[in-house]
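Work Package 3 (structural annotation) set out to generate three-dimensional models for the target panel prioritized at the project kickoff. During this period the team completed the workflow that converts sequence records into discrete structure tokens, so that structures can be stored uniformly alongside our sequence database. As a representative example, we reproduce one entry of 455 residues exactly as it appears in the project archive.
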Amino acid sequence: MSEIETYSFTAEIQKKIFAMLLFDPDAFMSNMDMMKPEFFDNVVLRDMMLIVKKYNKKYKDRGAPTPAVMIQEMDFLLEKNKRLPAKEYLDVLQEILTEEGKGDFDYVKDKVADFARFQGAKKAILEAMKSGLKKRDYEGIVSRIRKAVSIGETEEDLGIIMNKDFDMLRKRLDDRENKYDRSKRGIRTGFTNIDRHLNGGICPMEVGVIMGPLKRGKTTVAANFARGALIGSNFVPGCDVVHYSFESNKHSTQETYDAMFSGIPRNELMNKRDEVEEAHKEFFSRAGVGQLVVKHFPANSGSAWTIESHLHKLKAAGIEPKLLIVDYLSLMRTMDKQIKYDGSSGGRYLLLGQITLELINLAQRKDVAIWLLHQAKGGVKSKYSKKGRIGTDDTADSQEVPRHVDLVLTLNQTTDEAKADPPMLCVYAAGGRSVEDNWEVYMNFYKDMAQIKEM
């Protein structure tokens, strides 16, 4: 049986939620309507939330009040009511203000609606105990509780009535032309044959999987795709790229890029430092080349919200990537809970499926494309040479991964291809939601130099 851990809404969690609303503009805009001062157990947080609500009502387009405004309003409140415990108010305010600029709200971001529903339901039950039961107003009790547990749901959204909403039809067609035209929006892999099959590249809001056996070159392929995205093309300019590594050796990914940019084998990088440095400078000095960030997280420590928190910090530093590489799926965790399992495939299945959906949601929220690296199951090395290409049914642990994503590329290599000089690698499209599948591209694979070259 799977065991799911959930957070309780402790005083510290409630302070973190309030700080997130104050300092994360996206969280403020999407959650303010559902938040009420009485949801907070701490009287100081209630008064602070009341200040925020009044400010938002008065200045609808300004977002959250600034720290200076919060301090001014708190001083006014304490001056007006001398009986309030001033030290307690100032201490809580100071704790909230220290959160500014951290951007590390990943473990509470998805809790806001849950928090509002829980606190709303608790309040409704307590009110029912006081008055509803005395009046025997059972329907009223049920109504209040039902209203509380549906906080955050959009009641007005009835869906698109296809036979009536022709304005929405025109918008959909415009969106399809502007957002999903791969010749305009596709993020290039840098390989002519692959980009041709993808009609331009992977689009923002899409998630593609690069799947292959252990030590078959997934990171190398992803790094070369990142290189193509950094350079761009005549149609689509180079974009910023972030490579998220969850593997134990954080230097390995950096060495992959060092070897790829320089064309120098990994074991010679230290002996040819000047050449490596010169190659890096030459690559990134090109006009229109994007910025590359390699970010390492220890295994099982990062989630989709951890990544989003990091993107928030990058944006503050002037870096707004359009392509993310996640290396790799099995080393991540779910964002708001840990699914523990006793070794059965069922727990693993749920875990990887949930993480995949969270990354898909991240891609859509942030309008980014994601190349997701994933292991193929054991025993597939011989399948290619005997029975055919590695396919979507060869994914390790969970069919939820290829089922949800937009594109699955698998890496195939026979023994003869591995021993060839130079070695060859077959990139095979095993599945595609909106692009052609069942095509293959052969490449020369210089693994020691982390380079792939079209044949």
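Residues 3-149 form a domain with the DNAb Helicase; Chain A fold (CATH 1.10.860).
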